[in-house]
Amino acid sequence: MDFRPARLPDDEALLIALNIEYLDFVAEGLMARFGVRYDEIVPGGDLPTYLPTVLPGIIGPGPPESIFHIVEQDGQPIAMGGLHRLRDGVAEMKRVYVRDTARGLGLGRALVERLIADARGFGYRRMLLDTMPTLETAIALYERLGFVHIPPYPEVEMSPAMHKYLVCMALDLA
Among candidates 163, 10, 22, which has minimal Cα distance to 98? Predict the structure, then answer.
């Protein structure tokens, strides 16, 4: 497995494709479990229009403020995830996703541990994340790694109407 930093605009098409796959996966779970509509989850209900507007902020300017990894095996993308600065001393983990074909290999843990190490290396003291209650495996992983549950934080990407579904977590990095 190879970790490489994502770069815009070079990786934009790949990142849009991976993010659509990830966000559709999340949306399907939310719609099935809570009966929410797709346009409640995805602003405007149109990911190909929405994603190019938010990717620069998710990817960030690069080290030491942010990093976004694309994980490849045999030249094929199998996972992604990153972190970016929210405010002084605080980073946010974003878009951790492992494709179906690579699940069960410990890649999610390896990616999250890499992001935690990156955040510490960049000098962050705290890492926040938001996820959905339908992602039980991810939540259990975050708990095993020391993340604790917190209320939604001001910078959460989801609309306030969706906050009741969010699981927000924090990890002290000091």
Answer: 22
Token output for 76: 């094929």
DSSP element (H, E) containing 96:
strand 90-98
Residue 47 structural domain: 2-127
Instruction: Give the CATH number for residue 64.
Output: 3.40.630.30
Neighbours of 174 (CB within 10 A): 7
CA distance between the termini of the chain: 29
Q: Per-residue pLDDT tens for 45-57?
A: 888 898 999 999 9
Domain membership flag for residue 173: no
Which of 109, 114, 149 has its CA nearest to residue 129?
149
* pLDDT, tens digit (0-9, with 9 covering 90-100), for 134-146: 999 999 999 999 9
Enter the pTM of the model: 0.94
- A 10 A CB-CB count for 147 gives 23
Cβ proximity of 89 and 124 under 8 Å: yes
Grouping H, G, I as helix, E, B as strand and the rest as coil, residue 128 is: strand
* Nearest to 78, CA basis, from 48, 111, 54, 53: 111
d(CA 53, CA 101): 29
Quick check: is 170 in a domain? no
